[in-house]
Amino acid sequence: MTLCDIGNSTFHFKQGKKDFKISINKALKHFPKIKGKIYFISVNEEGTKKFLTIYPKAVNIEKAIEFKTKYKGMGLDRKVVCTYIKDGIIIDVGSAITVDVMDNGKHKGGLIIPGFNAYNKIYPQISKKLSFVFKNDINLDKIPLNTQDAINYSIIGSIVSQIKDIYEKYDKKIYFTGEDSKPLLKYFKNKNVKYKKNLIFNSMKSIIKNKGK
Fold it and tell me: In terms of pTM, does the model score above 0.85?
């Protein structure tokens, strides 16, 4: 069985213990030939069309996802992970950083924060003098004394502070997922935190199993 999470910038595949990503913009010839059943979710309409051109028998599991929330416009990928984590704060770090709070099976709401790549583009657009090299090991206990550190402090600090605010309000275990979340873990050493690399795929497997696909 092969799983695929179609995002805004990549196709993320999972085959057994192996996982890999292919850019949304890659030519069709770069996609592997896959035997057996393929299941996918998508938040990218154009990406879905491209995917089905390559894998026409792939199964979209969107209709099998049962998730209720008062939140309007919630992405399918967020719904998928929230069906798996019944109680906790889920931080998915990708093109955007999403924060969702689950309280005993109920979705309380969430945040959307720009991802690291988005922040990288913002400052040079303000001024060429604000071009910088991204660093993820900034000391948030020390105020910066140069522009490079000032920008990096602002990026990391804004992300960390918003997550900590949610943690202080709800006092629940934090689940980080997404490769880009690793730089943030060091800022939550004193919190109840767990990194779950394959959260999206574990949830997809659970949905497929429960629906007998």
Answer: yes
